[in-house]
Amino acid sequence: MTLTSRTRFVNPRLGTYFGIFTSLLVGLVLLLLIFEQLGISEGILRWVMLLGPLALYAGIGAAVPTNEPIDYFASGRRVPAGYTGLGLASSAMGATGIVAMSGVFFLIGFDALWLVIGGVGGFVLMGVMLAPFLRKFGTFTVPSYLGRRFDSRAVRLLSAGLLAVPMLLFLAAELSMGAYAASWLSGESTALMMMLLIIAMIATFVVGGVRSLNWSGSAQAIAALLALFVPVAVVAVMVTNFPLPQLTHGPLLRALVGQEAAQGVPIVDARSFTFLIPDQSHAAVAKRFTAPFGSVGSATFIVATLTVMAGVAASPWLLPRVTMTPGVYETRKSLGWATVFFGLTMLTVSAISVYMRDFMSDLVREHGASIPSWMQQLVDLGFVQVDLSNGPLALTSFKIARDAVLLSLPIAAGLPDVFTYFAAAGIVAAAMVAAGATAVALANILAEDVVGGASWDPLPTEPRLWLARIALVGVVVLGGVLALLAPTDPLRLMFWSLALTASCLFPVIVLSIWWKRMSAFGAMAGLACGFGVAVLTILAGAADVLGLTGPLAGLLGIPAGTLGVVLASLATPGPSRNMLELVREIRIPGGEVIYDREMRKLRLKQRDRT
Questions:
Q1: Alpha-carbon distance 550 to 534, whole Å?
Q2: CA–CA distance from 156 to each of 58, 159, 165, 297 (Å)?
Q3: SS3 594
Q4: Which residue ranges in the chain fall short of pLDDT 70?
Q5: What residue ranges do the domains of the chain occupy?
Q6: C-alpha dihedral over 152, 154, 159, 165, to 10 degrees?
Q7: pLDDT of amino acid 391
Q8: What is the DSSP string of 484-515?
Q9: Which of 85, 173, 185, 541 is deepest in the core (most CB within 10 A)?
Q10: Predicted pLDDT of residue 355
Q11: Angle at the Cα of 345 (from 340 to 351), degrees rounded to 5?
């Protein structure tokens, strides 16, 4: 008997290909740096930095077309663990998590750590409780898994309809953030840049589906990480003589604490359920960086952390990616890589906020009542507002736009303008990888579970793929229209999306694996109760009725979903013997993928009929 490696289908030249892409991207940045010194027009530099990477992403996506369902929906189940982890980390919070959280860290300091802890904890939960077993089941979408797990088309259709809501919110958030960065970079209107992003996403993902998403998304994630790491690494060398800002920004905090105390930055003691997160408007530094529980209360910190943890673990745009690895072992490894990449990203975001606070504290100490040229440039760009009416400058005299902190750091450090343009291009890349993951996952849900949800047998190959492609175009366009017609703070949309996902899906999908007694009625009750309570909590918070804001909807939604599952399952007949055997098989990671086995049997039956 010949033994072959389960990773034999993994392309051994992937590292070479992405090395070439990275070299092209770095070469483009270096070339633009040279052109900047030669006096090339600023407008040309901005447009090349925007369109050049977009052309590379579209080229990679268009270079991997497919007409096979296993490739279109699961990338052939041959994506290595490292690339899967990179895609998971980049798609978890996307550009909104990078851009907005750098500003939130700057304004409220360590109170923003709840999002970091929740994100890392979410990947740990996913790796331990969900990912290996969903990889064993092998369906292309979460509603397909729930429908087949309970042998219920009603569960499949209900979950597809409910999960579309948080996915659309997250898609709109990412497109809004991407259009914001592209608009600043190009100088054109946000609506025009939204159209550009929609066209770029369709050109990048439509021909290959998940296959295009994995390989172009990996390139976008690499570009986003480089654009995030490189400018702050240069700043770290300037300030600390060491190019690892993730390690060197900590010692700056000791000096920063003393400077903030001397400049009168307050220490705030918030109530337990206080939740004051900065919005997109200009705001002054709210509290000292290291002082805890000043903008986010202690109880709120715990609730928000657990909500984000459950939302990330059960994200329907992330879970399908764990089924694309060559095996369960690689799935576990991919979640380890996702935790590493996500942690590095959030450490870098924290470093950006610390270095920016350090620059502004030095400005106050050294310049008194005047401001240097780099601060004047930030004022002219609309990133910062300065109040000179109250005597000598203090750190609280400056109001900075939350989403401008990331772009402000290269300017404050006196770096060439190309570094700022590169950071903006990285924001666009991060938005595309997260929006692409969400759009492809939602389109597959619409094609597989809504249109084709009335039958367990999939459509013929050609209509099935064309339906998925048409759904992808429609989802991307709908997300762009939603972002333009309802211009809400992208960070708020992301929080709502995670809270709805945590409340609606997390109890159901966890108990579907770990509780054999759970029934189809329990699944529907859990989905409906969790979603309904979370929506009502968000609406009540927006109306200032309940006292809980949107991100805290999981405080009521997760228990409601869990209670709905338990009570409805106990009140209805138990699962059949076949369902019990299916649950036992899910819990054994080795062996043939369940969905692939079902499709193989279906093909054999169809061949026998003919």
A1: 8
A2: 33, 5, 15, 39
A3: helix
A4: 1-9, 366-369, 389-391, 608-610
A5: 42-67+81-486
A6: 170
A7: 64
A8: HHS---HHHHHHHHHHHHHHHTHHHHHHHHH-
A9: 173
A10: 92
A11: 125
Long-range pairs for 25-33 at CB < 8 Å and ≥24 separation?
A: 25/53, 25/56, 25/222, 25/223, 25/226, 26/226, 28/52, 28/53, 29/418, 29/422, 32/418, 32/421, 33/416, 33/418
Q: Do strands 282-284 and 384-386 pair parallel, antiparallel, or not at all (unpaired)? A: unpaired
H/E element, 283 = strand 282-284
DSSP three-state, residue 385: strand
Cα dihedral 326, 327, 329, 332 in deg (nearest 10): 80
Query: For position 5, what pLDDT does the model report?
Result: 40
Residue 547's identity, in one-letter code, is G
Distance CA 508, CA 142 (A): 11
Please calculate the CA angle 426-429-431 and round it to the nearest 5 degrees: 110
How much is the pLDDT for 4?
Answer: 36
Q: Are 167 and 177 in contact (CB under 8 A)?
A: no
Contact present, 217 and 209 (Cβ < 8 Å): no
Q: What share of the chain is helix, strand, coil (3-state, %, to 5)?
A: 75, 0, 25
User: How is residue 91 written in tokens?
Assistant: 């798609």
If one counts every other C-beta atom within 10 angstroms of the C-beta of residue 68, the result is 12
Q: What is the DSSP string of 343-365?
A: HHHHHHHHHHHHHHHHHHHHHHH
- pLDDT of 369 reads 62
Q: Tokens 């924290």 appear where?
A: 350
Q: Which amino acid belongs to residue 571?
A: A
Within 309-455, strands assigned E span: 384-386, 398-401
Is 599 strand, coil or helix? helix
> What is residue 366's predicted lDDT score, i.e. its pLDDT?
66
Amino acid, single-letter form, for residue 123: F
- The residues, any chain, with a CB within 8 Å of residue 226's CB and separated by 6 or more, are 22, 25, 26, 422, 426
**Dist. CA 340–CA 179, nearest whole Å:** 28
The matching CATH number, chosen from 2.60.40.420, 1.20.1730.10, 2.60.120.200, 1.10.10.10, for 42-67+81-486 is 1.20.1730.10
Strands (E) in 449-591, as ranges, are none
- List, for residues 194-234, the tens digit of each pLDDT value: 999 999 999 999 999 999 999 999 999 999 999 999 999 99
pLDDT for position 284: 86
